[in-house]
Amino acid sequence: MKKQLFAIIVLYSFQFIGACVQDDYVECDCSGITEIGVDFIGLDVDAQELTGDGFSEMQEIGESVLKENFVLNLNLEFTEKEIVSNLRKIHSRSFGFPMAYACTCAVPYLVTQQVERIEVLAAEADSSNFVDVSNSFKVLDFFDNDGFFTIVEAIEASRQVEIAKNFIPNYKFLIADEAAIPQLAVFRILITLADGTELLQETSQITFE
Fold it and tell me: How many C-beta neighbours within 10 Å does residue 179 have?
C-alpha cells in the first residue's frame, strides 16, 4: 500500500513539474480565420477649437475662433461583420485533469469600400457657392502629433492603420492656408468611397477672428 501511494505521489510530482516549466505561450491554429468586414455607413463632422498646446485639448467653438486654432474632426461611422471565426483550442492535461488553453488570433480588418477621396468645400455666409479648399487644409499625423499629412497622404496612411492596427482612425483637419478661408464660412465635407458612394456633412456657420 505504501509503495502504491509513493508511486502515485511521484507520478503527480512529475506532472506538477511539467506544468510549471511549460511555456505559457500556446500556438494557435488561425488558418480558419479570414477577417472582420467593415462597412462605412456615415460621416460625423465636428468643428472644434484648440485650447492647449497639444491636440488633446479641444472644445466646442463659441462665437468665433482663430483660424490657427480651428479643427475639423472627421469620424467615419461604420459597422463590423465577422466573416469567419473558427478559433481552435489546444488541450493539455495537468494533475490528471484536462485543461483548455484558449487561443486568440489577430483578425485583420477588411474595409469593403475604402476611402478614395476627401474634399473640403467652403462657402461664404449666405452663399450657396461652395469652393474646393481641400489644398488649404492639412491633416494631423495619426502616429505623430507633431507631424501633418496632405489629404492624399492621410488616406493612404489610414489604410495602413486599418490593416496593421485594426482600427479606423479619425481625421483632424487644420487650416494650412489661412488666406484661402473666408472670415465667415460654412464647410462641407465630401468623402467618396471606392464604389462611388458619397458621404456628405456640413458645418454650421463659422466666424473667424
Answer: 7
